[in-house]
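Bumping my old thread because nobody answered last time. Still need a sequence for this structure:
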């Protein structure tokens, strides 16, 4: 262990020296690294497909949609915008400071630690890296040990494509993660559970290290009354959003669905048809559905369903394939609200449906739980939309679709409350890994000197008034304050 500590210390020192050299501040260096990520993905696409299918059961189409394609899109966006992001922003100064100029200069934070997650082991590791590189930092990546093939791929391939003196990958489990958290970083970016997020934040507090925590929570979906044609579209999007991304093992996946009681039976029938069409109805031969990551998580989900009060609420699915770690898409109708399935993040292919007398009661229901990372609402009622936005709090809101907000570079992605804090994607990633330094430069030309009362008292009163109206510089001239004889 001492040798490992020494190796990590040596690696971090090399990264700090690289940062001090100024190499990563160059726009050419940043663009070279970003283009190298594109080459990495292009030249190793088949290997990634195989690794993701082996570890998570992801179909190549799912892997490209949620992993490779997402990262490529983010790199392309960064390359097209990085010149603008790096440019100093001119600040408007009040007349009081005349003659002077001001600007806001983005500068890299330094050495950052990015801890990835297993459910999207490529996206949730490389997407933050894009922001860290764009901002000009040196980086340590700690991929999740629960996706070891993908972690090994990153550890072996990134040094071949990226600058190994500026970007390093350190593999390992909990002990390695805890070891890394003992060091002083200039920024920590973590994606994972709320439980581990608290550990990360506690460790960062020892060094006053800023953190971004991308956590999760019980993300709700609201389904309002809709015409039949719109209801069919909504159902497809609900099914795709719940079971499509890693079989529900997604931090922004739908955790439970709220609907009026009178629509529940027709909704369930429509959900059944769509599930069968998308995935089939035989647990041993399901198509396009990822597996549960490991036996521990598989047993956790089984235990949620084996609660007798919960098992009685299953209206579709509920079958298990222990050999392949597959759980059939499962729908539950009105499970007990005090059951574990309604109080812990599900993170799997189980969908509780909660019925209400009136759909607007959904706002109170959502507010009774911790703030979610995402909230989805299918409705054409504009006043209801306004109420949702005004009366609920969540990391993001999507109307009439699910999860697509995650892949929009023009919108920030992040949580609030227990679902995390900080944001990234696009320019927001660049900002997350940057410090905005205020720069003010004054001329030596004007230097003001005080005069004696009572004229000074009058000028003081006038100055107070001027501050209120932001005309200070003009008023100073009108009051006859002159240039110092020593200037």
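Sorry it took so long. Here it is:
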């Amino acid at each position: 262990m001492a040798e490992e500590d020494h190796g990590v210390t040596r690696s971090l020192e090399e990264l700090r020296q690289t940062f001090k050299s100024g190499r990563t501040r160059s726009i050419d260096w940043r663009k070279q690294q970003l283009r190298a990520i594109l080459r990495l993905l292009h030249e190793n696409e088949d290997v990634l497909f195989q690794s993701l299918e082996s570890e998570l059961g992801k179909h190549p189409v799912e892997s490209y949609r949620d992993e490779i394609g997402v990262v490529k899109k983010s790199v392309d966006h960064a390359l097209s915008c990085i010149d603008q992001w790096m440019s100093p922003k001119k600040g408007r100064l009040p007349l009081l400071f005349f003659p002077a100029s001001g600007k806001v200069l983005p500068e890299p934070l330094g050495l950052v630690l990015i801890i990835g997650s297993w459910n999207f082991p490529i996206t949730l590791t490389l997407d933050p890296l894009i922001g860290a590189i764009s901002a000009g930092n040196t980086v340590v990546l700690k991929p999740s040990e629960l996706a070891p093939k993908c972690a090994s791929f990153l550890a072996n391939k990134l040094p071949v494509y990226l600058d190994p003196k500026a970007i390093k990958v350190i593999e390992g489990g909990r002990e390695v993660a805890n070891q890394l958290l003992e060091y002083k970083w200039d920024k920590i970016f973590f994606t994972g559970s709320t439980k581990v997020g608290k550990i990360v934040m506690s460790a960062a507090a020892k060094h006053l290290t800023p953190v971004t925590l991308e956590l999760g929570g019980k993300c709700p979906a609201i389904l309002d009354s809709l015409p039949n044609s719109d209801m069919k579209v909504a159902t497809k999007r609900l099914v795709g959003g719940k079971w499509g991304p890693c079989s529900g093992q997604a931090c922004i996946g739908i955790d439970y669905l709220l609907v009026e009681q009178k629509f529940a039976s027709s909704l369930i029938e429509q959900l059944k048809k769509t599930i069968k069409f998308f995935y089939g109805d035989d647990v041993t031969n399901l198509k396009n559905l990822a597996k549960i990551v490991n036996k521990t998580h598989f047993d956790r989900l089984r235990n949620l369903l084996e609660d007798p009060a919960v098992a009685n609420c299953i209206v579709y699915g509920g079958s298990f394939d222990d050999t392949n770690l597959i759980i059939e898409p499962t729908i539950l109708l009105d499970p007990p609200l005090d059951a574990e399935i309604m109080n812990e993040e599900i993170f799997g292919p189980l969908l509780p449906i909660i019925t209400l007398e009136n759909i607007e009661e959904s706002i109170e229901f959502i507010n009774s739980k911790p703030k979610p990372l995402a909230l989805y609402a299918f409705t054409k009622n504009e006043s209801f939309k306004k109420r949702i936005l005004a009366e609920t709090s969540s990391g993001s809101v999507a109307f009439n679709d699910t999860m697509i907000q995650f892949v929009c570079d023009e919108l920030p992605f992040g949580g609030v409350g227990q679902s995390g804090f900080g944001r990234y994607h696009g320019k927001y990633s660049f900002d997350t890994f940057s410090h905005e330094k205020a720069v003010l430069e004054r001329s030596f030309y004007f230097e003001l000197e005080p005069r004696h009362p009572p004229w000074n008292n009058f000028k003081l009163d006038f100055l107070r008034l001027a501050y209120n109206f932001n005309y200070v510089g003009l008023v100073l001239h009108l009051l006859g304050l002159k240039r110092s004889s020593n200037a």
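The first helix runs from residue 2 to 21. Let me know if any region looks off to you.
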